[in-house]
């Protein structure tokens, strides 16, 4: 009898047991992986043996995640050490950088706890491993949505700055993390396929296919929401009667195109593989066995976010150079005290934040280039 059949029998015999009692069953992961990936006991042993060493893809992803951690750490340092960046929009950018930093860290941890080490875990440890990565990546995506919401409100409402804006900022950031933790924690709470083998995902064998479909739907709705918000912003700016409207509109359109293009490019393959996973078994869709490639590509979005959202600020670029100078990376013979020279001018993003602090008309003329 193959291990797959044994797993099926195990799943049927455990239907009357609480799934939570299976969370520390060390043999469960072997059985469920064999069933979900359609492997015999011999095939599973070979699979474990082949996974004992890091692959070239794993090494590339580890290097990428290291870059993600370093560049997002640079963003956080720049925001924290310079008072010019202590404003709502830069805090949103800092939140995005923090979530991307966690995504890179979680993915590195995931890689070193994957492979043959997967089969040394008990289910609760497996849920924590995968759930942490889901939380970090979800927080990055929800941060993008929070920034889009904030920019839309700022460009369409009056008197949006001050205490009301600060409250909204904390509410959006808090909602981002609460939602991400809830989304990533649903499987360990109970939405999984333990004691229900036919519902198991081929990519993530302890996750329910319905949960995978739910996640894909949520992320697709987020993408649609971001598209709608930025289109609305563009239409509002285009309808402005200011002389510089055309130039500003084209600048906004360029930024929106970059943001949405990178988001779709990085996440669409992962969405596709997860959607396929929810409707197809691995014996009919061999591409599901290559899911690591798609998830690794999605992680690239966390590396590109700092480039898109921070390097458009001249002051942020100057602060990056100043931090690197203090670290001794870019001194180039310059005096060390130049690292601490305060910024002389405000960036367009910061300028918009303060210029309209007491504005009583909709903010859409000068802030269009801040996106």
Short structural summary:
By secondary structure, the protein is an all-alpha fold. It contains twelve helices and no strands.
Mean pLDDT: 76
Total count of strands: 0
Structural Rg = 24 Å
Q: Which fold does the CATH topology refer to?
A: Rhopdopsin 7-helix transmembrane proteins
The ordered string of helix (H) and strand (E) elements is HHHHHHHHHHHH
Largest sheet: none
Helix content: 55-70%
Strand content: under 5%
CATH architecture: Up-down Bundle
CATH homologous superfamily grouping: Rhodopsin 7-helix transmembrane proteins
Low-confidence stretches: 1-16, 158-162, 342-371
Number of helices: 12
Family: Belongs to the G-protein coupled receptor 1 family.
GO molecular function: sphingosine-1-phosphate receptor activity
Domain G-protein coupled receptors family 1 profile: 71-309
Membrane topology: Multi-pass membrane protein
What can you see in these coordinates?
InterPro entries: GPCR_Rhodpsn (IPR000276), GPCR_Rhodpsn_7TM (IPR017452), S1P_rcpt (IPR004061). Residues 71-309 form the G-protein coupled receptors family 1 profile domain. There is one protein chain. The protein is mostly helical and 371 residues long. The protein has one domain: Rhopdopsin 7-helix transmembrane proteins (Up-down Bundle), CATH 1.20.1070. 66% of the residues lie in helices and 0% in strands. It has helices spanning 3-13, 28-36, 41-50, 56-81, 88-112, 123-156, 163-189, 209-238, 245-277, 291-310, 314-326, 348-355. Mean pLDDT is 76; it is low at 1-16, 158-162 and 342-371.
């Amino acid at each position: 009898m193959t291990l797959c059949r044994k797993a099926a029998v195990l799943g049927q015999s455990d239907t009357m047991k609480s799934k939570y009692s299976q969370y520390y069953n060390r043999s469960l992961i072997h059985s469920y992986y064999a069933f979900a990936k359609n492997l015999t006991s011999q095939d599973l042993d070979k699979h474990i043996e082949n996974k004992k060493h890091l692959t070239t893809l794993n090494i590339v992803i580890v290097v990428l995640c290291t870059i993600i951690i370093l560049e997002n750490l640079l963003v956080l340092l720049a925001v924290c050490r310079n008072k010019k960046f202590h404003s709502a929009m830069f805090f949103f950018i800092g939140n995005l950088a923090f979530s991307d930093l966690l995504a890179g860290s979680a993915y590195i941890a995931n890689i070193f706890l994957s492979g043959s080490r997967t089969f040394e875990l008990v289910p609760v440890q497996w849920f924590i491993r995968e759930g942490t990565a889901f939380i970090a990546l979800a927080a990055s995506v929800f941060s993008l949505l929070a920034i889009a919401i904030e920019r839309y409100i700022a460009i369409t409402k009056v008197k949006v700055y001050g205490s009301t804006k600060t409250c909204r900022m904390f509410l959006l950031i808090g909602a981002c993390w609460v939602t991400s933790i809830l989304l990533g924690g649903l499987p360990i709470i109970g939405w999984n396929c333990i004691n229900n083998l036919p519902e198991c995902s081929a990519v993530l064998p302890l996750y329910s296919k319905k949960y995978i479909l739910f996640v894909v739907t949520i992320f697709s709705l987020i993408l649609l929401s971001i598209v709608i918000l930025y289109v609305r912003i563009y239409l509002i700016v285009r309808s402005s009667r200011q002389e510089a409207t055309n130039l500003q509109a084209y600048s906004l359109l360029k930024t929106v195109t970059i943001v949405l293009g990178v988001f779709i490019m990085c996440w669409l393959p992962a969405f596709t593989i997860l959607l396929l996973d929810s409707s197809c078994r691995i014996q009919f869709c061999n591409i599901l066995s290559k899911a690591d490639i798609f998830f690794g590509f999605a992680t690239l979005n966390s590396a590109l976010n700092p480039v898109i959202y921070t390097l458009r600020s001249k002051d942020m670029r100057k602060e990056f150079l100043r931090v690197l100078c203090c670290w001794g990376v870019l001194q180039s013979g310059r005096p060390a005290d130049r690292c601490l020279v305060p910024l002389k001018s405000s960036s367009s993003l910061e300028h918009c934040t303060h210029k309209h602090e007491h504005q009583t008309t909709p903010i859409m003329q000068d802030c269009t280039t801040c996106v």
